[in-house]
Each structure stands twice: as structure tokens, then as C-alpha cells.
């Protein structure tokens, strides 16, 4: 149907567009904040969207935070861990862990707790953003029953538009999938009433790793 | 596009008598109207965003060919393929051929109005394929062999009990014997049944909320996460979408996303917003090997040089349905088209022909609410008025109405007589009124007052007030 293309295009206005003012980012003023207030906005928006939140001071404390979250959820099964988290000291916690090691290694059955990294977050709506690459199996974000996501505070940005600037500072090419995720999966299809856990995770927990510059002087979080 | 809009009047009456439907439609006010109002109020830039949204959509349509070429180039550069379909039949054939190439048997689908428009699922099923809708609402519709009654809430017309009946009938083969009473249980059961479909599917089919020209990305928004399972589990992803969905840049896309979700459900964002660009890269941990985009025209290019051009700006948020007093009283099925409500009243005559859908642009009180809430400021009442004019020009107006309009226009040209008739009518209506309302109008037949009362004329007529004010504009 090669001529379908020509046929359709011949009927459409074809002038080359000139650069336009709205190519500039247009961020809501509420999202342009210094880092401490950005963190507060992020936490507020997570709560508004029914996600939960905890903080740690260093990456090495992530296994402990995961174990606390697992206990809080009353979850008893094995914990599936994304590849990028494999180097953390998981032996200090009493969890049955499964590290995803390759393409066909992600368990797809329903009911599991899965933990992964994200590459950025937008405080604007409490949204975490993941991208697919050789270490990130995008399916993990959607097949889990309980999803736990680790966010480095340096990757916590304000408005959505900043996500792309942040990404371009790390890579030129667009990843196959970039997923903006805000709270657990939900549906209001039946009588316009929200139920969580439609197809994706029924619970979403974010563990924020505080950046050195914003860490409190002393004490555990 | 096949429509049953000729039966609009009968179906509207049925809908008004349907107590289950009337109760279900009661959820619109709280679920959508209030939620949108709050969402708009909570974003100080909302009105500014609407202007920006309108400008972006107008700009895209002005340069549609150029942006589609750019999008196409980007998709190819990422390893995907783009197909062009002039009409529904071509689109269905393209999809069927891709499925055949892949030796597909099971297809998981996420919600898409374009696939409803081209009746893709029934066509694939006729070819012996198993195509399963995975959006909960669309899934229920598919089991019940119905059509969606709302563009974003397909089962807004159903009660929990009806869903329970449907699942009880269809889920026993999956080992679910008990009839459920709780919403949460119904959702959990659908999750369990549909998980099997996701695992089995060879091909995933989605629509697109937007196509980003600068990156070749397909943007999908859902709350359930079904589109993400559809696009990450099967080995082939086919996107079927309208040619008007393209936007220039990621930044422009975010402006429209902020508007779309607030206007649709009153959320600030949906749970999932996904930017999908081409197939799995060689080193990626996962992803479909094949990525196809089918760009469907099906009457869209023909709209560009018409009075309905601005309908191509529509981002399918459903706000005009939610705020329409007609839609809120009769629901979507009465319209007999996959596109109901005010946006459907403009779009359906364009896609299916005015002769078959002439009642739809007339199903409006012209209250103007649809235009007032449309995130990209589409002048829907103006466009419905255009259709009414075309209806008259094409002699599609019923004889009685034509006669009435003729009398009206003749009277309008005889002011003294007009005033006399008007005075008599006012007196007559006052006699018929009880507490300011008229319950039956002799000349209008039963139809007009069967479901609503008419307000009795209150105070003086416009003309006499005008005369008293000395024909001056009020200060
Ligand atoms: S016409 Fe406007 S309000 Fe109606 S669905 Fe389209 S964008 Fe939304």
C-alpha cells in the first residue's frame, strides 16, 4: 500500500514548520523549587497518589529499607531484585532474594514483590521514571504485585520537561521505553470508584537515597 | 464507520426509561465533573495551558504532512516500521497481515478509539484470531458483546451487579465458580484471567494518545498498566492510530498531557505514561522485536479544508461528554456511534455521513458547556450549528420541522404579526403553567414534555424590554 502513503500525504498541508515558542519547556511554577522543598512536594504527591515513601542516607542502607517495607506489607514470598541492585549488601537482611540476571530470568507470575532502580523522578506529580536498557527489564515495573523503587535524590527533578534534559546529559539516543509511573495501578471502570491493583502493582513504595549535600548532620533516617 | 444513529430518538427515549442506566449516569457528576473542576483549580497555569494546547494542535494540523514525515523518519531510524491506511479496510488488512507474518494466534489489546472506529477486533476474530481487550472496561464490553458508551469510561453505563453477572457467566471456564459482590473482587478476578492473556499473546495492539515527531515515540496513558503489559510481553507491538495524533516535541506533548488527564479524569496525571520508541535494542534486557505503527486516515484528511477542521485538534479527553446535559441524561449508546456526546455529534456526521447521523448535531441545547471545558478550546457548538445548516441545505430536515422553520422565518419578516403571535403564545403558556413550569405542550406533541418540563415565560419579552430601555445597550 505504498500509494496509500502518497495519497494521504498529498492531501495534507506540508509546509515545513518554523521553530515555535512552545518548543521551550513550560513548567508549572509550583514545580520550580529548591531541593528541600522539591523533596517535600515529591513526598506530598506520592501520598496523594497512594504510593508510600521512605528515606535512607546511603545506598548500603537500601536492603534494610526493603526488609522494613516487606515486613510492613506482611509479604512472605521471595523478593525479586533488578540487576542494578545486585551489588548491595543483601546478606545483612533476612530476605529470600532472587536477582534477575538476564532476559529470560524475570519471573512473570503474579503476586511477587519486586525491587528496581529508576533513573529519575518528577516532583511535579510524584512520578518516578524508568527507562529500558541492558540492565532494566521494563516488565518488572508492571508484572510485580508489589513494586519497590529506589531513587537517588540527585535524580529528583521538578517538572516533566527536566526529565529529558537529564536524560540527554547521560545518553543521546531515545531508549525503547521511558515509563512515567505515578502510584500503584488502578481502575475506576466499575461505577467510577477507584480500585488499586488493576493489572500492574497494587502497591508502590519509593526509597529515596538522600544526596550528600542534603543529608542531615547526624542520625539515621 | 457503521453507525446506528438513525435510531437516536428511539434509543434516547429508551435510555430515559432505563433506571439502571440512569443510576449509573449519576456517577458522572462526582467522578468526572467535580474532579475536573478541582484539578483545573489546582493548577494556576491551567487556562494558559489551554491556549498553548490549542495553539500546538492548530500548528500541527497546519503542518501535518511535515510532522508525519518527521515522525515516520524517526520510527524507521529506531528500527520500527510505519504503514499508511487510507480507510478502515486498509488498516484492518495491514494489521491482519502483520499478525499472519508473525504466525500470531493470540492478541492482547489495549484501549483505542481508532480500533473501535475501524472495528478491528471483530475483523481479527473473523480471521480466526483470538483478540482480547485488556482494559477492564473494554474487556467487560467485549464479554457482553456491546459497544463502549464513553470514550474514556467504556462501561460507565453498567452497574457493579451487571459486571458481576457477566463475569459469573464467562469466568467459570477459568475456574471461578462464585458470583462476586465486591468491586475489588471483580477487579482481582479480571486481573487473574487477563494475566493469562498477556502471557499467551504473540502480538500486542495499542492505540496512541500522541505521536512525537522529534523522537518517533508513541505515547500511551493508562491507569491500569494494561497497555504496558501489552507492549512489553508480546514479541510484536502494533500501534493503530489516527494521522492527527502527532505532536512536534516532547515538551509540547507534556503540555497536552497536563491538559488531557486533568480534563479526562481530574487526575494530575495517569498512573502510567509511556514513551515507546521502536523495537528492542540489541542489548536491551527486554522488549518486542517488532514495532509497527499504522497511521489511519479514514476521513481525517478530508476534514482539513472543511468547517470541521478544528475537530482534528481533539485529544479525546471526554470532558465534553461529561459536561453535556444530553449525554448525562441518555448515556453514549443512544448516539449509535463510537464517538458520542458533543465531539461525536461533530465527528460522526463527518466520518459516517450526515444523512445517517443527522439527529446528533441536533442533540444539543447549545448551552456551550462543551466548548467551555474543552482543553484545546474546540468550538463544538459552532460546528454543530454548521451541521444543522448543512442538514437544511441538503434537505435532510424532516418536513414538519422545515415547515415550522419556514413559518418562523416568514413571521420574522413580519414584525407586527410576530409580536402578536408571540403575545398570544405567552398568554397561552401562562395559562398552561403550574408554579412556573409547563408539563404538557399541546402543539409540541408528547415528545418534548415527556421527559422534561418547559419553563413558563417569566417577566416581559426581550423586545418589550429592549423598547423600554430606549434601544440602548445596558450600561
Ligand atoms: S472535543 Fe475537546 S472536550 Fe471533547 S473530547 Fe475532544 S478535546 Fe476533549
Q: Which architecture name of one domain in chain B does CATH use?
A: 3-Layer(aba) Sandwich
- SS-derived structural category of chain A: alpha/beta
Number of strands of chain B: 12
Secondary-structure element pattern of chain A, one letter each: HHEHEEEEEHEEHEEEE
Short précis:
Chain A is of the alpha/beta class and 221 residues long. Chain A contains five helices and twelve strands. In chain B, the strands form three sheets. In chain B, strands 1-10-7-4-2-3 form a six-stranded parallel β-sheet, sandwiched between helices.
How is the topology of this model organized?
The complex is a heterodimer of chains A (221) and B (475).
Chain A: H1 2-10, H2 35-48, E1 52-56, H3 62-73, E2 79-81, E3 97-99, E4 113-117, E5 120-122, E6 127-131, H4 140-143, E7 146-152, E8 156-157, H5 161-168, E9 177-181, E10 186-187, E11 195-196, E12 203-209
Parallel strand pairs in A: 1-12, 2-3, 2-4, 4-7, 5-8, 7-12
Antiparallel strand pairs in A: 5-6, 6-9, 10-11
Chain B: H1 8-17, H2 19-25, H3 27-41, H4 46-62, H5 64-77, E1 81-85, H6 88-101, E2 106-109, H7 113-117, H8 120-126, E3 130-133, H9 136-144, H10 160-170, H11 183-200, E4 203-206, E5 210-212, E6 217-222, H12 226-232, E7 236-242, E8 246-247, H13 250-264, E9 272-276, E10 290-296, H14 319-322, H15 325-330, H16 341-352, H17 369-373, H18 380-393, H19 399-412, H20 415-432, E11 437-438, H21 445-450, E12 454-455, H22 462-468
Parallel strand pairs in B: 1-10, 2-3, 2-4, 4-7, 5-8, 7-10
Antiparallel strand pairs in B: 5-6, 6-9, 11-12
Helix pairs in contact in B: 4-13, 10-11, 16-18
The complex binds iron/sulfur cluster (SF4).
Can you put this structure into words, describing what you see?
The complex is a heterodimer of chains A (221) and B (475). The mean pLDDT of chain A is 92. Chain A contains 5 helices and 12 strands. Chain A starts with a helix and ends in a 12-residue tail after the last strand. With 221 residues, chain A is an alpha/beta fold. Chain A has one domain: NagB/RpiA/CoA transferase-like (Rossmann fold, 3-Layer(aba) Sandwich). Chain A is globular, with a radius of gyration of 20 Å. In chain A, the strands form 3 sheets. In chain A, strands 1-12-7-4-2-3 form a 6-stranded parallel sheet, sandwiched between helices. Chain B is of the alpha/beta class and 475 residues long. Among the domains of chain B are: 43-301, NagB/RpiA/CoA transferase-like (Rossmann fold); 415-472, no CATH class. Helices cover 49% and strands 11% of the residues of chain B. Chain B has 22 helices and 12 strands. Chain B has helices at residues 8-17, 19-25, 27-41, 46-62, 64-77, 88-101, 113-117, 120-126, 136-144, 160-170, 183-200, 226-232, 250-264, 319-322, 325-330, 341-352, 369-373, 380-393, 399-412, 415-432, 445-450, 462-468, and strands spanning 81-85, 106-109, 130-133, 203-206, 210-212, 217-222, 236-242, 246-247, 272-276, 290-296, 437-438, 454-455. In chain B, the strands form 3 sheets. A 6-stranded parallel sheet of chain B has the order 1-10-7-4-2-3, sandwiched between helices. The longest helix of chain B is centred in the middle third of the chain and has 18 residues, at 183-200. The mean pLDDT of chain B is 94. Chains A and B meet through helix 1, helix 4, strand 9 and strand 10 of A and helix 3, helix 4, helix 5, strand 1 and helix 9 of B. Strand 9 of chain A pairs antiparallel with strand 9 of chain B. The complex binds iron/sulfur cluster. Iron/sulfur cluster is lined by residues 263, 314-320, 343, 374-376, 378, 380 of chain B.
